[in-house]
Amino acid sequence: MRIPLVAGNWKMHLTVAEARELVFAMSRSLNEVRGVEKVLCPPFTALLAVAALLKGTDIGLGAQNMHWEEQGAFTGEIAPGMVKEFCEYVILGHSERRKYFGETDETVNRKVHAAQAHDLTPIVCVGETLEENEAGRTAEVVSRQVREGLKGLDAAFAARVVVAYEPVWAIGTGRAATGPDANRVVAEVIRPTLAEMFGEETARAVRVLYGGSVKAGNAAEFFTQPQIDGALVGGASLKPEEFVQIVRIASS
């Protein structure tokens, strides 16, 4: 049985002091919710402070990105071992990384393998742009991103990977996909691709999240879909009451 997972991607928001305030405002309530994994993904600068506040809770911590190399002359980058000091999870291949920083399926794949080497659970983001969606290329694009992003993994680690389906046109726009539409992409594209690569058992084990303008008001529409196992939440994860409510909906 797949345990639901709700991850909050804080993106480039919050100073260390503001991050502490947000954790104080919701950690107790989050910790009381059972039956769902909770993960917070602050900016790198706040990881140490948030990690300290989450000690003794069942709330996981994730980074928003990392490099694939162990160390070296990569100014401005963060190595997997640095992430592992604080985190259990890492978001990889987010569409904003692909759009603004030249992330490709190849670099995502390198990072996924680095995550495996450092015992980090990757949350691998896939999703089509509006143009690709309107051109009827959703299946082609999403299948390629899954295939190229996860190639070379063994089935045991692949089962641990979390895939986040985030249609690019729905991220931060207030325009979410419908629950049935998102479920269809997972059922007809993502899981069949995983099955081709790793077998049916692994495909059934992988948790697939929906991301893209998820709010307390629409979360149930996604969480009641049989193939969707939670959410990667952006803006709403910065609002403590709303994020807690989303997690509660996932647990029910």
What does this structure look like?
The longest helix is centred in the C-terminal third of the chain and has 20 residues, at 179-198. The chain starts with a strand and ends with a helix. The protein contains twelve helices and eight strands. With 252 residues, the chain is of the alpha/beta class. It has helices at residues 16-32, 47-54, 80-84, 95-101, 105-117, 130-134, 138-150, 155-158, 179-198, 200-205, 219-223, 240-251; strands at residues 5-9, 37-41, 59-63, 89-92, 121-126, 162-165, 207-211, 230-233. Strands 1-2-3-4-5-6-7-8 form an eight-stranded parallel β-barrel, surrounded by six helices. The model has no long low-confidence stretch (mean pLDDT 96). It is 46% helix and 15% strand. It has a single domain (5-209, 226-251), classed as TIM Barrel, CATH 3.20.20.70. Helix 1 runs parallel beside helix 2, helix 1 packs parallel to helix 12 and helix 7 crosses helix 9.
